[in-house]
Amino acid sequence: MVLQLSVLFGISDRYVLPGAPRSSDDESTTEWCVVIDVEELTVRFDDVLALDGASLSVDDGEFLTVVGPSGCGKTTLLRSVGGLQTPTSGEARVGGDPPETAQSAGDLGFVFQSHTLFPWKTALENVVFLRELAGRDPERERARERLDTAGLGDAVDAYPRELSGGMCQRVAIVRAMHLGASTLLMDEPFGELDELTRYDMAASVLESWRDSDRTVLFVTHSVPEAVLLGDQVIVMADNPGRIVDRVDVSLPRPREESTMDTAGFAEQVAEIRQVLRQNRGDDEGAIYAER
Amino acid sequence: MSDSRPPEWSYPVVALGGAVVLWAAFVSLLDVPPYLLPHPIEVARRLVGNPGLYLDAAVATTVKVFVGGAAGTLVGFLIGVAVGEIPPLWRAISPYLVVARVLPVVSLAPLLIIYFGVGFATGVGFVALMALFPMAISTAAGFRQTPDAALDLARSVDASRLRVLFAVRLPYAAPDVVAGLRQSVTLAVVGAVLAEWFVSDGGLGYLILLASERIRPDIMLASLSLVFVIGFTLYGAVGLLGARLRERVE
């Protein structure tokens, strides 16, 4: 339950020079390898300061969650890391390079709040389609296996309109995995799902993350979700959108849905809610923190 | 339990049959003179009595519809793609495209005659002009249907513009393209008949014009029924295509 206050000032003790090698034969450097590196990132939309000087870093293989109220700029942060949003000032780097480089390399796997499956393609076709868009070999058989593993064996040839919202989002996650990107950027992927499906999905994301060595940046407005998933939780506040804290999650892995019933989990959630409450900007924030 | 409802296609067929029966009854009971409105059987007799004349005319008109319609929809489609793909072009041209629909294309006919003379080319050109605008407008509008999230996804893997155009934007635009095609096909048939009025190079429109000069409504109605068949067939074919596409892209 150590508060990393350094984050308050935009300085992380996990910070490593941008451009550091992602992987190396040298064990000592691998340990300190930063995959996502955000430095003094500011994004302004006309008069609105969506993001004010946010800095963070994510290590190789780390699962970092970002939590905060609506309008705190967490989606803007994620989009900037993914190269979908050009920052007003500051910069985001992925693997030491600008996000555009990672895009070209097919090294960024996005999962959005809406599943963004193409309605005229089956689940399998959707999964391979992202690789095709990226100009890669579709690897259909591998895609079929992945869908099977994700419990979507019966849905392989189904169209999105024949699937539930949760199943569509599962397909979208499999699609991001199948791209083969080492970095996953997830923007409230369970935001449109009901409470039960949501934690079920979270558990399966954890499972597939365990079996890979992927780095994940996961944005959510649900504190329990952030705690269940993350190695660390970045806490954000609105007006202006900014990072206010970085909290270590001390819960042991592997974590499952039942982890949420433990006292340690409740404590961590309470701690983060406390931080959110301290930084609430308006009434909306107050309501939010009570949830 | 059996579904006793008659099939969907039977409704318009019954409506058409009913209209013809009403027409026949109206003419017989009120003794309408044939130079005002002939009996439907008289009209059918024209068609059966001189099939060569009507077939030739129908073929001439159909050829105009197909050649002109294909050229017009193709050019309209390409304009639509360009305008939809290049936002500044959309801003610059879209107001005029909409206004162009209000402009009666008929008023351009004399200009076409100056350029192409009185003949097949003018007829085809006119049909093409009629078909062009709805296709261009609908296609351009369809290109605005691509969800932002789909474009974000494509951007996140740095997909090439051409690939995004063909694999993402065109499929999302397809229902609108077909809607445009449906309007274009209808207007192409109208355009072919109109063109035959002022070019007078044969076809069903020319036949209608001749029949009008000789006060022969039976020949006019016989020709008209064939225009209707051509238009209805084309519209139906495009409609079926559209229904299948809509089913997929929703």
TrEMBL record, chain B:
Organism this protein belongs to: Halolamina salifodinae
Keyword terms of this UniProt record: Cell membrane, Membrane, Transmembrane, Transmembrane helix, Transport
UniProt-annotated location(s): Cell membrane
Transmembrane portions of the chain: 9-30, 65-84, 187-209, 221-243
SUPFAM superfamilies documented for this protein: MetI-like
Any one cellular-component term (Gene Ontology): plasma membrane
Membrane topology: Multi-pass membrane protein
UniProt-listed GO biological process terms: transmembrane transport
Family: Belongs to the binding-protein-dependent transport system permease family.
Protein name per its UniProtKB record: NitT/TauT family transport system permease protein
Residue intervals of the ABC transmembrane type-1 domain: 58-239
Classification via InterPro entries: MetI-like, MetI-like_sf
